[in-house]
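Minutes, project check-in
Item: structure for the 470-residue chain
Input as provided by the requester:
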Amino acid sequence: MKRKTLLLFIIACFFAPIIMKAHTGGHFHQGDGTIFNNWRLKNGAVLSGNFSMNKDSIIYLEQLNGRILAVAMQDLIEQDQKLARFKIHQFQQINGVNEIIQTPFSIFQLITNWLFYIALITCGIIVLYELKPNIFRILFLNERRKYAIVVVTLISTFVIACSKTSATSSSTNNNGGTNPISITLPKTTTGFIDSAFMPYKPSLSTKWDDTYFYVASTGIPNHNMMIGITSWQQQVPISQPYIDNNSWSIPLQPAYATTPLSTKTNLMKGAVAIAVNGIPIFNALNNRGEDSYLIGELDNWGGHCGRGDDYHYHAAPLHLSSTSGLKPIAFALDGFPVYGSKEPDGTNMALLDTCHGHVGSNGIYHYHGTIDYPYVVGAMKGKVNLDPTTPAPENQILPQAFTKPVRPATNPLKGAVITDFVAVGTNGYLLTYKIGTKNGYVKYNWDLSNKYTFTLTDTAGIAVTTSYQR
């Protein structure tokens, strides 16, 4: 009789926690029709869940079947930060406290989990006793062994129960923003990209396939160049073969990088973006890690020439906004657009993240050009493919267009300041520089057969003419 009574008691202990565990502690379950709030993060992620509580600068969102997700307030976009503050204020009024301080998992849930595993192990022992009483007697014959088994069972049960109540974790990216889910972005329409390049046609041409939008150009902008450079390596802008298979490529399907690639320690070779006038935009830092603008390498338009006499920007070409209006002034090589100092809707520029951009009102990320470092891209928000032959910091993005040098690389000319740059004929230019009070000149041109002729006249009046065939 005692055994039957004990058996009924243990069975009751077994089923009670199961009944209690039938409610997992959460309010929302699969199929109950609950509508969740969407919370948008600065990194572009969208979280689904309803506000549950807050602790300091962390809010807790309750998701399906009681899953709790911790989110830092600073990771939310400004609009959703306001929503969170409103929710916190409501809870404060209801509870009459300055701050809601709770743990995201209840003691009730912990106890029921614990009881469940104790009951499960106890039932296992009973079954063992009923089926194999001799084995049971052997196990518990020694008094010390009996207590040891009980202690080990209790400790194991407690560890298992506690592990089941751990918080739902979320990974973080290098900006400190949570990125707990994979975000699938919509494919960028070719019409949207093409409309940004349209004002600069026919100086450039565009085409596309299912993967990339292609931009072909000569590398010569429709504005003046070179004037204002005070640190000059004697390069000058010439036409570049950015055409056909060597065109600039913009991915149509952007995807957020797990860890955005910082331009402080990467991408000091090649372009990071292509301006809508067909001119590439390089890292704000040159290949020596110096801010090209601050050391005087750039002209009044934010550009200069590389060792291949290729003209490109290192600063944001904000002057393009006078023609582009509220359309993008560039596209980064990860596929995200770059706007000027205004938002696409004409409002003032919103706060930028460490990548130098943010999620727009359309839910899609974009960069902004500014007059301060990093000027265009602080880190590549989107995924990019890197050239395996170029290690950091002089690594580069692939695919991209490449220059073909015509003449050997030249050396810096100490003390030279470029004071004038004018077109001469159809395919020629005259550059004037000054050292002290004396002028020097570079006059050059090219013909239809790609023969380039350079005449360099130094400040002493000595001229040297050299021709090169591309």
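Outcome recorded: The chain has a mean pLDDT of 82.
No further action items on this chain.
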